[in-house]
Amino acid sequence: MGEKRTNKKRKQQEKQQPVQLVQRRGKTIIRLSPERREALLRLCEQLKVKFRRLDLLNTALTHPSYCAEFNQGNLPSNQRLEFLGDAVLTLIVSDYLYHAYPEMDEGQLTRIKAISVSEPVLHAVSKKLGLGQYLLLGKGEERTGGRDRPSILADAFEALVGAMFLDRGWKTTYEFVLKHLKSRIRMIERDRLILDFKSRLQELIQGRYHLTPSYHLVQTIGPDHAKIFVSEVRVRGIPIGRGKGHSKKEAEQEAARAALKKLLKGTLQLPER
Question: Is 158 an active-site residue?
């Protein structure tokens, strides 16, 4: 009797979950709950892109922490779609830059592309689209603020691009990406958005350590007419990022971007005092 109650309770809990894995014709497919399906349809309206396969959109928004706690089988996370989306996103931005800025050399194009697809930029776009509220997260990740975490939101945007490419193809994905990145690319090209990296790094360092980062020119390369500057950003004398550019300002901005990326990814920890 007790075992029957336990099985009944487990089945009820499974029905309440946003997704289920079911077998159909020898294949495992994802079945969405009515509430989850409705939420994803709302997201499609916000994105102004109609997905043919909502299960693919759902996977793009499924964080690995949710899969780790899922008790019905091997639910796919968004990591494979993120891998694909990263490549598609880079190609779209590279193609746009190549055609939009014929006067720029390879170094300038590379700099703009790197910033355009960087975590802070993708996090900002993802946040504007409201992707956080549609994420499936594990309980621990939810408790620790994962729904607003920059790395998770940036990864979700890449996974969304990957899912869109598979579901709707190149043209729709290309138009979608540029719709949300073109204005930011123009700001980067005009050295406006890039300033946010220095400001954001300073906010992060001051918030965590109550210190201000300093910038140091460490090297100059090449002849006077084509000089490359290498700058380093330091905190308490400890180098935390290095960047290069055609001006000291650009090199400092690149150093800030490198440091910010490491801090946001958690690969850099400064000692507390």
Answer: yes
Q: Does the domain made of 197-265 have the CATH classification 3.30.160.20?
A: yes
- Rounded mean pLDDT of 248-267? 86
Checking if the pLDDT of 169 tops 90, the result is yes
CA pair distance 213, 203, nearest whole angstrom: 10
Q: Which of 82, 119, 141, 158 is catalytic?
A: 158
Please write the tens of the pLDDT for every residue from 181-207: 999 999 888 765 555 678 888 888 988
CA dist 120 and 94 (Å) reads: 18
Four-way CATH pick for 16-194: 1.10.3210.10, 3.40.50.2300, 1.10.260.40, 1.10.1520.10 = 1.10.1520.10
Can 232 be counted among the known catalytic residues? no
Select which of 55, 82, 86, 189 is catalytic. Answer: 86
3 state DSSP class of 30: strand
pTM score of the predicted model: 0.71
